[in-house]
């Protein structure tokens, strides 16, 4: 996750919703471990690089994000950005390894 560039865009495959995360804690609070395990998300960083999401159980952190060598075009990332809903950040400790955080609300684009 060292060279990961935020924001990160996450596509929810079941309904086509695109979420935009400004930082890692928001991702870990909102995304659900079972959905990561079931490959329910596609994700890219701001440079359009495909991200690989995985579940690892190390203390409070359960989400692992790795940058892959695959990249989408600038046009594709611009299209994703237009669809994206910015996600609210949470306070440390609010996230749940299974998701269902109380702060799972998008904030208005402004």
Summary keywords:
disordered C terminus; alpha+beta; single chain; six-stranded mixed sheet; 110 residues
Rg estimate, integer Å: 13 Å
Strand percent estimate: 25-35%
- What's the structural domain tally? 1
The beta-strand count equals 6
What is the ordering of alpha helices and beta strands?
Answer: EEHHEEEHE
Which stretches of 5+ consecutive residues score pLDDT under 50? 91-110
What does this structure look like?
It is built from three helices and six strands, in the order ββααβββαβ. It has one domain (8-86). The longest helix is centred in the last third of the chain and has 10 residues, at 74-83. It is α+β, with helices and mostly antiparallel strands and 110 residues long. Mean pLDDT is 85; it is low at 91-110. The chain has a six-stranded mixed β-sheet. It is 20% helix and 34% strand.
Write the layout of secondary structure elements.
Elements: E1 8-12, E2 18-21, H1 24-30, H2 33-37, E3 41-44, E4 49-58, E5 61-71, H3 74-83, E6 84-86
Briefly summarize what is shown.
The chain is built from three helices and six strands. By secondary structure, it is of the alpha+beta class.
């Amino acid at each position: 996750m060292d060279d990961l560039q935020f924001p990160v865009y996450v596509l929810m495959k079941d309904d086509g919703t695109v979420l935009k995360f400004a930082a890692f804690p928001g991702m870990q609070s909102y995304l659900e471990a079972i959905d990561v395990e079931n490959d329910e998300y596609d994700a890219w960083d701001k440079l359009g690089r495909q991200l690989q999401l995985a579940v690892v159980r190390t203390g409070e952190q359960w989400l692992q994000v790795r940058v892959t060598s695959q990249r989408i075009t600038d046009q594709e990332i611009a299209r994703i950005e237009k669809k994206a809903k910015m996600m609210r950040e949470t306070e440390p400790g609010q996230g749940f390894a299974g998701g269902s955080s109380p702060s799972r609300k998008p904030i208005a684009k402004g």
